[in-house]
Amino acid sequence: MFHPTASTPESLPGYRITGSDAPEKTVLKLGFVPLSDCAPLVAAKVLDLGRTHGIEIELYRQPSWAAVRDKLISGELDAAHALYGLVYGVELGIGGPQADMAVLMTLNQNGQAITLSNRLAEALQAGIGLRELLAAESRRHVFAQTFPTGTHAMWLYYWLATQGIHPLDDVKPVVIPPPQMSDALASGVLDGYCAGEPWHAVAEAEGHGRTVIRSGEIWPDHPEKVLACRRDFVARHPNAARALTMTLLEACRWLDDLEHRREAAGWLSGPGYIGRASPLIMPRLLGDYGRLGNTAPLMRFFGGGSVNYPYLSDGLWFLGQYRRWGLLPDDVDMQAVARAINQTALYDEAASALGVLQPASPMRSSTLIDGRRWDGSDPQGYADGFEIRADACVGGAGDGRR
């Protein structure tokens, strides 16, 4: 069992939990969807990491990302484990009702995947191109993701486009909550899906489909889930928001130890969290994907703090992809949106109090699966440079109420 060693008030330079620094709200309600990457919230709860920072965490399992969105907007939840792209979609009013949102920190990188039906996966493994496979059949194939503007939608669309497939025109994209995806694949309703674990491991274990690519192969060390809340929560409860960020930073640091992940997999298997057996959770949490090997970047929770900084360039990537797929009007100032959402100043305070190193710049660069380099400097030019893209803004993305 983990025993915090660097989290007493005396050991945190510049931080105390009395007087003007005391959290304005001490019991915080956090939502999560049953996925392996909700592990930081579960670890923070089980290890009671908030106690030193003057807060208590209550966790509330949600059936879908739409439920997370709705309860954040209504105030029923103070904060949540959320898709990066969900936060940006809500801010823009293209993923349901509009609300001013905040990203306090990134909770993890990598760790998602795409699974196809056995038939498609076997043909792909035999060297037949996916575009050729789909074109050989007269019907429109159906691929699921988890939220209209979410990370899984963007990974799925990006990967299909690299296969020469337009994800909005050549196939039918639908929204399904992660726990329902394996059954939908088994019933023939779906041909494939992108989601988080362990729902790909479940599909393979049940013989319904096969994982064909991991998200870290699409974008190595991509941003995935974030600690999200409304911006007015930060404005009204800045000390509580900072204390919550510190608590989750400590949880993420603890989870970067693989032995700790083994322990966390047991917690996650409980009925109040994921509710699936630990052997379905643990291997992929440790980077073991069986026949696919361990060549893809491991799910990262901390990485010396490099995972958790709310990089502006990460948010800008999603905005550029919304522009690419016709979801974002031309008059939106992408830089202003990213600066409003990503709470870099608050994160700096929390990380500094814990002695966590911070990057020299709020921008970072990456090279994706198609060889295109992303550094956040020109999201419009980046979006315009893709051959497969929407011609113009086509309006909202639907509200994802599943």
TrEMBL record:
Read off the CDD domains from this record. PBP2_NrtA_CpmA_like
Q: Where in the cell is it found?
A: Endomembrane system
Instruction: List, alphabetically, the SUPFAM superfamilies matched.
Output: Periplasmic binding protein-like II
* Ribosomal protein found in the keyword field: no
> Which Pfam families does the entry link to?
NMT1_2 (PF13379)
Q: Note the InterPro entries from the entry.
A: NrtA/CpmA_ABC-bd_dom (IPR044527)
- What are the alphabetically sorted keywords of the record? Cell inner membrane, Cell membrane, Membrane, Signal, Transport
Q: What is this protein called?
A: Nitrate transporter component
Organism of provenance: Jeongeupia chitinilytica
